[in-house]
Amino acid sequence: MAGNEWINGYLEAILDTGAGGVEDNKAVNLNDHGSHFNPTKYFVEEVVTGVDETDLHRTWLKVVATRNTRERSTRLENMCWRIWHLARKKKQLEGEDSQRLANRRSEREQGRRDATEDMSEDLSEGEKGDVMGEMVQSETPRRKLQRNFSDLQVWSDDDKAKRLYIVLISLHGLVRGDNMELGRDSDTGGQVKYVVELSRALSMMPGVYRVDLFTRQISSPEVDWSYGEPTEMLTSGSYGHRDGRDVGESSGAYIIRIPCGPRDKYLRKESLWPYVQEFVDGALAHILNMSKVLGEQIGGGQPVWPYVIHGHYADAGDSAALLSGALNVPMVLTGHSLGRNKLEQLLKQGRQSKEDINATYKIMRRIEAEELSLDAAELVITSTKQEIEEQWGLYDGFDVKLEKVLRARARRGVNCHGRYMPRMVVIPPGMDFSSVIQEQDPSETDGELAALIGTDGTSPKAIPPIWSEVMRFLTNPHKPMILALARPDPKKNITTLLKAFGECRPLRDLANLTLIMGNRDDIDKMSSGNASVLTTVLKMIDKYDLYGLVAYPKHHKQADVPDIYRLAGKTRGVFINPALVEPFGLTLIEAAAHGLPMVATKNGGPVDIHRALNNGLLVDPHDEKAIADALLKLVAEKNLWHECRWNGWKNIHLFSWPEHCRTYLSRVAACRMRHPQWKTDTPVDDTVVEESMGDSLKDVHDMSLRLSVDGDKISVNGSLENDPAELEKMVALKGDKEVSDQVKRVLSRLKKPSAATLGAEAGKKQGENTMNKYPVLWRRRKLFVIALDCYDDHGKPESKMLQVIQETFKAVRTDPSAARFSGFALSTAMPVSEILKLLESGKIQVTEFDALICSSGSEVYYPGTYQCMDEEGRLCADPDYASHIDYRWGCDGLKKTISKLMSSSEGKDESIIQEDKASCNSHCVSYFIKDSTKARKVDDLRQKLRMRGLRCHLMYCRNSTRLQAIPLLASRSQAIRYLFVRWGLNVANMYVVLGETGDTDYEELVSGSHKTLILKDLVKKGSEELLRTLGSYQRGDMVPEESPLVVCTNGGQTAEDISNALKQVYKATVGL
Fold first, then answer.
1. What positions does the domain Sucrose synthase first GT-B occupy (predicted)?
2. How far is residue 713's CA from residue 816's CA, in Å, rounded to a whole number?
3. Do 398 and 474 fall within a single domain?
4. Residue % of the chain over a pLDDT of 70
């Protein structure tokens, strides 16, 4: 287009000058010239200051290389409009983001006020003033988060008699003990190294007997075979067990790999969410087995429960929360990186909408997992205070100010009405300094470097290859080296460092600058952000004529890093981290271990590191002069350099693994310790008889297989087709006297009833009202859980629920031998009184069920057992389950808050809910829903409760006619896991019968290691429409799209349909 030279000029200004040149300009009103659009002012004021589109430089290079003037002009015009659209889109997204943050701040303030007002009712006037005073103080921006740790006892050798079992979870990535493939992909990075080293270090602490690190088992041709091994030993224990007393068969640290999801695929972390529950069930099975084994070794015959379950990252945090709830043991969380923080950063870039970000990163599912982890965690471990205040502070479940109020009340012994905030503590990551060799003081070895490399740059002695690679850039390699080690990311602020170095002549005269910016082959093939930074670095080296003063090698190995630090130390150099914000700063600790003073950003983790080491200076990363002055000060002042060097060496032990683990165990010990409280009082004689019978069956099965030519002598369910007399004849024909004697011994203990007798027993079940002292669940091999949510428009159970129950009984009992060892459970949102009426109306004996899971999982009953009957013969709930789920249950606070939140949004005082007293119990608050169209969605209501410090499990149920709030650790899916933990019936041997939809906890019942049978066309309408708001995570993030563990009927609900579906799911899961 004619006359477009202004585009050329301003694009050059945009690309070459950057935003810094117009930062101080005042805003320009684009309407100053009437309705005429002023492109000059628009680009200078809006684009230069607002667009960060790093790949524009590549486009610009292609444009200027175009020789054809017309084509060049067309490309320039297209580029111009591209920038214009980017700026407009970014401005729109920024406006939406600003409004969202403002709404969130308002909601949080309202939540804090509501919580404080509700809790102030039982305080005296003086106490109210104290609490409000603390609230005001905590709102001071510069006031640091303070905690009272005066009564914290430090872990020591005196604790070695404790013999603890610790569970760590790191779900995603490739995890193994040796030859870690760090950097292979975004999921296999520093976290993998951290959790493996933490496992090893913890196992060597006094008082720790065993550490299990759980991760996903991967048997895929895409990765090494070692990731498919079920178990990998990391260490058998060391200095914590010197006396040999604690070293046992199962002691030490181990990687335990749990299969979940597709067995033959390596999945990235964003694709793992639907398989979390399956992972949890597999981990639970291992923990229960290991608890028994450790009980025999060190527990005096009693199970040794995990001391703590520690989740790393969001997916493992979600898993740890479920495991912690199932076992009732404390949970610890380390976020590593946080979803809300990432979401805020991506939105600020203005390149993607929230919907696009969610589709790519499953960010909303990740954030909800982090919120659930905060709900369940006793302790959250962070690397820095900045992470607590600026990152965790973004979450609904943590509020620094409200946490302070709750802590003040706890100190006074005042009731918090079920409100809770997890404890946040700073424990810097540990490091292994065993490979670090502290060099002699350079003042004593001034000639050492010269002797190594020669005064002319030659190398008379063998030196590390990376030294030669660095020194080839430098005219005088003997000068002190300023070392920066960071990837070429704009956030790392390398260009500001280079500008500070280039503009300070005294610093250039005294020192060299070495930039270790990752590995590269071709800048044009790198990501746009990295390429832009590297291109700018090269241009700035040329601009300031820094040839011979700056080294920027293309390649280095991880093993070269210690040698790079050593080279900088020998030149009496300085390490610098100029990042705009540094979450922690591990390289600062590495550099200090090698004797390098530091200059670091004052934003983030380096503040804590500097406070601990006192080995350098902190600077404003935006101030080039401050950076240059700090570097010059350390390089020029010899005494200061030595002081910082020795301070670093003196205090570096604070970041060692033993110190980290000592602090870790001390913090965990201060948590509220809990574990299953029930007595293992199942009668020993019955157990022995049952185990003996099981062994007898197994022995006969094995013999039958050995003596038969074909493998059809044993049915799928384990029943014997051979008659005992025939088996004896077979043995006699073989002529093996030892086997014959063994068969006779076994058969003398085993009397096989006829198939007709078995069928009759299964049909009668316990219909004769016989009472057992203990639930028969512990004898079951299979459990069929009927969890149908069939309700009419008034929330009453439909008659077809009874029909399906009867048909399920028939389907299971078609195989009498399987029926003998199979049990049934009924799981609904109804209270036990309504369940009994329903069963009575269908003439179904309640004793047909081994367990009743009532009121959405808030109560568990065992019909036909003494322990669940009162003196008047009425059913009573399991008291062990009631104490199991009582953790963080604040009934009174929930009632008051839910009533307030569910008031009509039209400004009236009228509430859309009414308490359903008949459905309430000590662990369930139930409400009628007057108008479901006005009800808040579950995730919205849960957010409001979290902001007020309240934790619970919320669900709409019974065709959206009821809202129920139950304890955090309670749910229908968690009740199933409780039956596993309490009575030993593995979840993998359970079958859950569902409709196509149901209550809002439906998704939790579909996934897991149990088999799921979905009856089509049975439940027409559920409550799931009230589960999530627009923009939240989706069903596909909770439930796998395809799974061999889930099967659907073809639309029928007859016994034949159900039986066929059961056979189908059994065949599909054989071998898993």
1. 165-433
2. 17
3. no
4. 76
